Amino acid sequence: MRPNTAAHQAGVPAWLLRTLRALPTRVTTATTATTAWAVCNTADAACVAADVAAVALSLCLAALHTPRAVQDWAGTAPHAAALLDPALLTALAQAARGVADLARHAALPSTQALVAGARSPRPTGPRCALACAQIALTASQAFNTIMLLVAEHLGDFCSQLPSGCTDPVPAPVTLLAEGLQESGLAGAAAWAVITCPGPACFGLHFMGRAAVAVPAIVDPNAACNNILAALTVFWGLGTTLKAGGRPGAIPVIVALGEALGHPDVASLRLAALEVLWTQAGMGPALARRYSDNTGTLMRTLQAASSGKAMAHVHQQFVLAALGLWQLAKRGTAFIEGGGGLPPEPGVPPEVQLARLTARSTEAVCRLTRGQGLFGLYGAKAELSPSMHEPFLLHMIDQGLPAAAWSSAAAPHWAEAAAWALAAAVEALARGPPRKASSSAVPNAGPDKHAAEVMEENLYRMEELARALRAAWQRGGPSQAPAASASGREAVLSGLRRAGLGASLDHALRLAYAAADRAAAPGAAAWDVQAARWLEPVPGRALAVVDLLGLDLLGPAEGSGGADGAPLGLGDAGGLAVTVAKRALALAGRLEAAAAAEVVGAAEAAAGAVELAAAAVAAETAEAAGAAEAPGAAEEEATGAAEAQGAAEVVGTTKVAGAEEATAVPPESVSERPPRPSQAQTLRHSLTAVRVCVVLMRQQRERRWPPPARSLGAPPSPASAAPATGAGITDAPPASAAAAESTASPSGPNAGDSGGTSTPSSAAAAAPHIPALGGGAASPGGGAASPAGATAAPAEPATPRPVPAEWGPLALELEGYLLRAAARLAAAAAAVEAAAVAGPAAGPEARLVVSCLTAVAVLCRTSDPGSPEVEARLLALQPHRLAAAACKLLCAWRPAPAAAAAVPAAAVPAAAPPDGSGAGAGGTGVEGSPGQAPVAPVAPAAGAAVSAAREEWQVGLVRILVLALGRLAAHSPGLAARVRGWLQPPPADGCTDAGAEGAAQGEAEAGARGCLAQAWSAALGSQAAAGAGAEDFTALGLALLRAAHGGDGGGGSLQPSSEGGDSSSVADHDPGFRQTAATLLTCKAAKGAGTVPGPLPASLEGLFGPSPAEASGPLAAEEAAAAAGAAVLAAPLPPLLAPPPLGSRALTQLLVCGCPGCATFGGGSEEALPLKRCGGCRAVRYCGAACQRAHWQGGHRTECGAVAAALAGLRGQSRT
């Protein structure tokens, strides 16, 4: 006979029913007693009865708590019907509530004072608490048993979907659900658990939330775990029942939803969350309790030796408290009352849900870091944060409504996603788990799961940032003030608290390090695979920075954000350092490749001469009977051809120093995955550094706002610039170029564009600027403007004093970032211009525009009399930027009217089917590694792409002329430099190339005349003749004539054939500077729609036609083509060597000073073991290898000068 049958025949269920029904009366007697002995006796009798009944029922229920109970339901049904009868469940629920109330009554100070005089051998308080814990265990066991039986009867959840099972819900399921609903057992069990033992984890009583003191012999885990397990079952059960559509499911859904929606169940769920927070070290009482329970805690955790089990309990906490709420909030499952937790006064439910989610995600992140619980959680468990994310971030992953991102809940949802990203990044950085027995075995591969989790979190963060940006754009800047809980500042404050910037920087460094390991010769297969897994990470990280507009500079730590306090690194400051460091390394490789190409060409030419001589010698030797010479000649020819082929490869798409790794022996790697594309790596770096440059410019312009408009009507509302974070890479090419040269956070900076404004529509064409020396003028004094463009009056900006907060660190970060961007832009643009198909409007051109814009903005916002400012401007290598821009303009070719296809780089990328690329599911940063290859565009799209490229050409012409004009008008020293670049080269010619460490005199000699031919060829190219560029072309040619000393007599636009040495011109002749300033002033005035009066007679001739233009269109076209070909064939001018303090000294910014450093270990650049140079104390290195490389690369010659310059500055500061 089965035990359950024997118990049933013995009348156990009937006895349990009688005993449990009598318990409320016993409890009432005990709680109403007025004498000490009466309280003790009646309470003890009630506790004994409760213990006996609870233990007996628990033993009987154990037989039902197995899968075989349902498999053999015919034999189990009578026993289950008796034990789970609604009458017995109701009696159990009432008894549990009564004993819990008795325990709370016994814990009252008045009751304890009353029974203290009785001196009972069994104290009433602990005795009642023990009885409450026992009956709570039994009630929770019954609740859990019912949920498990329901789940077992329904079978596999997947078969319940609409396309699966259509059988009616089994009758036992309906009976069990209705019995649970009628009895109120779920709420009673929760009430008893909250009373004693409370939700806890691994016997940590002092971290629990019990209403009464918990006796030491009580297991605080089992009762709470039973309820949490039952709620976990409902996570899948409730969803499946509602979505499955099975007949008879509705009554079950309603019954279970009402039972689980009891307020006491909600209170237990909240208490479980509070335990999670406490164990994560976020509770104020934790530190106080640690000191009293250190020994107990250590023994418990060490005995458990199962961090994963603890994490599983925490996972149940999160699921029961927040997962079910989010499930009900989305309507996926039904829970009475919406599944919410006890409300907070004055807080809307949606805000409370988001707030609790953010706090709980922070707790999980802290625990996975090893914080809280003495750090043993993270150290003992090989955990993944993805265990908790499906329940914490369910609503984000399923898609919150658009209105949610404009509500007060948005900052909390964003913070929760940032905490989850931090945990995922740190989990990947810790590496794959290793067993103690295999500690000596090398790592056999990357942690694929951790890489996937981090990429998924980055994708979530990118989509969240995209939704936030859309909400900010819909509401406008006025709808998101700093004081608003739903405003942008509130969101960024939460993201800053969660360390979003640091997480993005860390993820970026992990991806960079993986890519470098994969590119190294002899790379292991798992390194290559890891790089492939992390390939989308950089693009997604920069997309988040771009979409949110994170600041590179922010209040320094300890400053409290006081006005005037020097700025420190902001949210994306560390990421900007990493991006700039990467850009410098890639720029060095490109420069080395260009130098190798020049050397290779020279060697090839020399080889051709040797081949000719060898051929003559071969003929002679053949006549003389010598047979060895032809073989030698063939070897030389083969070598020359290989050298030429290598030079061609390097000059097109390869990056020097990043070549394919050598093959690994077959015995080490069986299958090698494809390596990440080096071209994609370069494109990402170009786009990433551009995003950082634009963000830095926006911060500078917020502190140096454009001057007040005083030359005409107020600006049009359509010209308002987008708020920070409105996106940097989404504008069309010409609009982006115009915005970079005009816009500022407070409005368009018309001084950068000659009185134009940024179009309000993203599809508007670049504004047309009134011509200086000709062109069709509009009735208002300016040229006709394309649709959507509005001319805004402006005047040239006057440099302003440097704000106090723009201190040394801000200057160093800005200088370091712009130097890296300028070097990479020039080198990459030169490579792109040499492409066979011509350049596209890709990241190379965009970065050149951004760097030239930075030059113009620095000129506008800097003191013209400061040598330090001149040094910082020269450190940007503006002559190389201008030369690279000229190459792009000369190389751009008009697209055919009916092109069959267009370059992939010129059009937006479409998202691949798997959602891993760009577009809706990919990165918002153009050209990033997360972007998938783009198929050729149909002929119908060719015209739009061609128009976009033409807009970029116009934008490049505008900013090129503006930047060089501002340099010329800034100070006498820079004016002399610009004039020297535009004048014909010296008689002995320019040097081909130079190194960064070359002597300043040699670099200056090589740079003189470097733009003479390129400038005229670029401004005479077809790209500069496009609509909207005529005025700036005229201005640029006027600058060229002024530099040549032209007086308006129609001098030649080409360099003088006599090749006179321009060094005879006085270096500080104020005439050229004044001419440049006058031309810019006239341009700004005409852009404002005003007439500044006739030009001086000495300047009128600067706008006359050139002999090339008067010689006929055919001859002019041939001359332009020949000049353009010469410009494309010429190398970039050599790097300038600015003064020591212009770019060399980095006393505040923590970064390795070696330009080619590729060390990306640690979470940030600051985390590297940086050590100062022992000589100058102004440069830091991450290791001896970088110090040696930098010393040999040029620091040897500048170390003393930097030290002397710093010593002079310190002496000035003391005086």
From TrEMBL:
Protein name in the entry: MYND-type domain-containing protein
Compositional bias (Low complexity): 709-771, 784-795
From start to end residue, where is composition biased (Gly residues)? 772-783, 916-927
Q: Name one Pfam family in it.
A: zf-MYND
Task: Enumerate the spans annotated as MYND-type domain.
Answer: 1154-1199
Query: Which controlled-vocabulary keywords does the entry list?
Result: Metal-binding, Zinc, Zinc-finger
Native species of this protein?
A: Edaphochlamys debaryana
Chain residue ranges for the region called Disordered? 627-646, 658-683, 700-803, 911-933, 1048-1070
Q: Does the keyword Zinc apply?
A: yes
GO MF annotation list: zinc ion binding
Q: Which intervals carry biased composition (Polar residues)?
A: 1053-1065
Listed InterPro entries: Znf_MYND
